[in-house]
UniProtKB/TrEMBL annotation, chain A:
It comes from Sulfolobus tengchongensis. Keywords: Isoprene biosynthesis. Residues 18-192 form the Thiolase N-terminal domain. GO terms for biological process: isoprenoid biosynthetic process. GO terms for molecular function: acyltransferase activity, transferring groups other than amino-acyl groups. Residues 238-377 form the Thiolase C-terminal domain. This is Thiolase family protein. It holds the Pfam family Thiolase_N. InterPro entries: Thiolase, Thiolase-like, Thiolase_C_2, Thiolase_N. It comes from the Archaea. Signal peptide: none annotated.
UniProtKB/TrEMBL annotation, chain B:
Residues 15-45 form the ChsH2 rubredoxin-like zinc ribbon domain. Coiled coil: none annotated. This is Zn-ribbon domain-containing OB-fold protein. SUPFAM superfamilies: Nucleic acid-binding proteins (SSF50249). It comes from Sulfolobus tengchongensis. PANTHER family: BLR3430 PROTEIN. It comes from the Archaea. It holds the Pfam family zf-ChsH2.
C-alpha cells in the first residue's frame, strides 16, 4: 500500500521548512502518480522549531493541511520521536483497510540547522518530561550522554569494547559508500573511529549521528495502478512504551524493543535485511540484542564474527543508516523506512541486498529510548 | 498531597541540604521523581522520606567540552533503593566509576541548591 515515497536531505537547507516539505511531498506524489487532491489523510511528526524560522506547529497534520489546502478525513499527530513515522505507516494501513481514508500522507522531519548551528536552544514552555526541573538542570547532553551511559554500563557488565562498537560504524560506512544520499562516503577503519574525539565517554564523534535538515514523505494508498512500486504489506508490527525515566527502569541496558519485537513476533530467519535505528553505534547493538538476533551481552562478539554489510550474512543498515546520511530533525525513522522501501523495490543502487523480500525495521524514540516500534515489511504471499 | 506541594517540599529540602524521596504507603515502592501517585501500584498514599544521602554509581559518562574539560553525569542508586540522575563530582583524587560509593552534596544551579554527588 506504500505507493510513493521521498526523502529530501540537506546539510543546510536555505529556504523555510515548509518549502522543504513541499519538495518531498511533490516527489512522493509523483512516484505514486497522485496529486494533492487525492490526499484525504495526513499523519505527521515534525521536529521542534523546524517550520517557519524556529516556530513549532502545535498540530502539524492540521497546519500542513491548512497550508497546502488539503481537507483530510483523518489526521493524526504521532509524536514520540524517531520511530513515529513507522507507527504512522501502521496506522495509515489500518485506517485505509477500515475505509476511513483512501490516500494518507505520512510525514516526518524538519529544518533544524538553525538550531544545530546556534549555541543555545530556544527555551519554550514545551517540556519533555514532568521531571524536567529535576533532570534537565544538570550539566548533561541528552541524548548523547544518556546513550553514552548505556554504552559504558554495557562495557562494564559484558566486556563490550570500543573496537566492537566501532565495527558497527565501519560496516555501515561501507554500505554508505555507494549511497547517493549519504553525506559521509569515504571508507573508514576502526582506528579512524577510535581516533575521533570522545564526545561523551565512551562514545566517539564517528559513533554519533549528525543532525540535518530533511523531510521524509510516504504515501499510503489503495490506488496502486499508477505506482511502479511492489505491493508491500505489513507482515508484523509491535510497539512498546516505557515512559518512566530510565533511571527508574530495572536496568538501562534494555530497551522497550524487547517488548515491541515480541509483540511483532516474527521469525528472524525469514528476514533478508535489518534496518535498525542508528542514532549511535550502541543503539544498533542494543536493538540487535533486544530483537533477539543475539543474546543480551553478546553483541560485541556477534559484530566481530558476522558481516553486517549489504553483501554480508546479516545485512544491517544497508544504505549506511543515518550515521552516514545525517539525521533529519533529530529523528532517524524516515531514513531507515526509505532504505527498506529501496531494498524491497530493488532501487538501492550500489547497496542492494540481492533478493530482498522481507525487511525488519526497528525504531527507538525520544531522548532516552522510551518508545520503540518494530515493523516488518514484505509482500504477503 | 497536591503535586505542587510535593514539588515545593522537594525544593525546600534541597535548600536545607536534604535529599527527599517518596515511599508508597501501599506497596512500599521507593522512588525519587516527585509524583502524587505511586508509579508501581497507582496508590496516592505517598509519604516523603529523607535519604541518608549515601549510595553508589549505577551508570555514568564523562561529557567533554570543547576546551578539553569534562563533567561527570550519571545515575546513582541510593542505599534506600531509589535511583536518580545527577552530576557527580570527583574530589580529593577520588575518581568516579560504576560501583563506586558516593554521598550527596548540594551545589547552587541557577540560584537554587540541587543535589549532586561526590565520590567517597
Ligand atoms: Zn505503590
Amino acid at each position: 500500500m506504500i505507493v510513493g515515497f521521498s526523502g529530501k536531505l540537506y546539510k543546510k537547507y536555505e529556504k523555510d521548512g515548509i518549502e522543504l516539505l513541499k519538495e518531498a511531498i511533490d516527489e512522493a506524489l509523483e512516484m505514486a502518480g497522485l496529486t494533492y487532491s487525492d490526499i484525504d489523510g495526513i499523519m505527521a511528526n515534525i521536529g521542534r522549531g523546524s517550520f517557519h524560522g524556529n516556530k513549532t506547529y502545535l498540530n502539524p497534520p492540521a497546519q500542513i493541511g491548512e497550508y497546502f489546502g488539503i481537507k483530510p478525513k483523518i489526521i493524526d499527530h504521532v509524536q514520540y520521536g524517531g520511530p513515529s513515522v513507522l507507527a504512522m505507516i501502521y496506522r495509515a494501513y489500518k485506517a485505509i483497510s477500515a475505509g476511513d481514508a483512501d490516500t494518507i500522507l505520512c510525514v516526518q522531519g524538519g529544518k533544524i540547522s538553525h538550531i544545530r548551528d546556534s549555541n543555545q536552544f530556544q527555551k519554550t514552555d514545551i517540556i519533555d518530561s514532568p521531571f524536567d526541573d529535576f533532570i534537565k538542570v544538570y550539566d548533561q547532553m541528552s541524548p548523547i550522554s544518556d546513550y553514552a551511559m548505556v554504552a559504558y554500563r554495557h562495557s562494564k557488565l559484558f566486556g563490550t569494547t570500543d573496537e566492537q562498537r566501532a565495527l558497527v560504524a565501519v560496516m555501515q560506512r561501507y554500505n554508505a559508500i555507494n549511497n547517493q544520499k549519504a553525506m559521509f562516503r569515504d571508507p573508514i577503519t576502526v582506528k579512524d573511529v577510535l581516533a575521533s574525539r570522545i564526545v561523551s565517554y565512551p562514545l566517539h564523534l564517528l559513533e554519533i549521528v549528525y543532525p540535518i535538515d530533511g523531510f521524509h514523505v510516504f504515501v499510503v494508498s489503495k490506488r496502486t495502478s499508477k505506482s511502479a512500486l511492489r505491493n508491500i504489506d505489513i507482515l508484523a508490527y509491535g510497539e512498546a512504551h516505557w515512559p518512566n525515566p530510565p533511571a527508574e527502569w530495572d536496568d538501562i541496558i534494555y530497551t522497550p524493543t524487547i517488548e515491541s519485537a515480541k509483540r511483532a513476533s516474527f521469525n528472524l530467519n525469514r528476514v533478508d535485511a535489518f534496518e535498525l535505528y542508528d542514532s549511535f553505534t550502541i543503539t544498533v547493538m542494543l536493538q540487535m540484542e533486544d530483537i533477539g538476533l543475539v543474546e543480551k551481552g553478546k553483541v560485541g562478539h556477534f559484530v566481530e564474527s558476522h558481516d553486517l554489510t549489504y553483501k554480508g550474512d546479516v545485512p544491517i543498515n544497508t544504505g549506511g543508516g543515518s550515521l552516514n546520511t545525517g539525521q533529519p530533525a533529530y529523528m532517524s525513522g524516515g531514513v531507515i523506512l526509505e532504505e527498506a522501501l529501496l531494498q524491497l523495490n530493488n532501487m538501492a543502487n550500489g547497496h542492494q541486498v540481492s533478493d530482498a523480500n522481507v525487511i525488519f525495521l526497528n525504531g527507538i524514540g525520544w531522548w532516552s529510548r522510551r518508545h520503540t516500534v518494530t515493523l516488518v515489511l514484505g509482500e504477503k504471499k | 498531597m497536591r503535586d505542587e506541594e510535593v514539588r515545593s517540599m522537594y525544593f525546600k529540602y534541597f535548600q536545607e541540604e536534604q535529599l527527599p524521596f517518596i515511599q508508597c504507603g501501599k506497596c512500599g515502592h521507593k522512588f525519587f521523581y516527585p509524583r502524587v501517585v505511586c508509579p508501581k501500584c497507582g496508590s496516592s498514599d505517598i509519604k516523603i522520606g529523607l535519604s541518608e544521602g549515601l549510595g553508589k554509581i549505577f551508570a555514568m559518562t564523562r561529557i567533554y567540552k570543547k576546551d578539553g574539560s569534562y563533567v561527570v553525569y550519571g545515575i546513582v542508586e541510593m542505599n534506600e533503593g531509589f535511583r536518580m540522575y545527577a552530576n557527580i563530582v570527583e574530589e580529593n583524587g577520588n575518581t568516579a566509576d560504576i560501583g563506586k560509593k558516593v554521598k550527596v552534596i548540594f551545589r547552587e544551579i541557577n540560584g537554587k541548591k540541587y543535589p549532586l554527588f561526590a565520590v567517597t
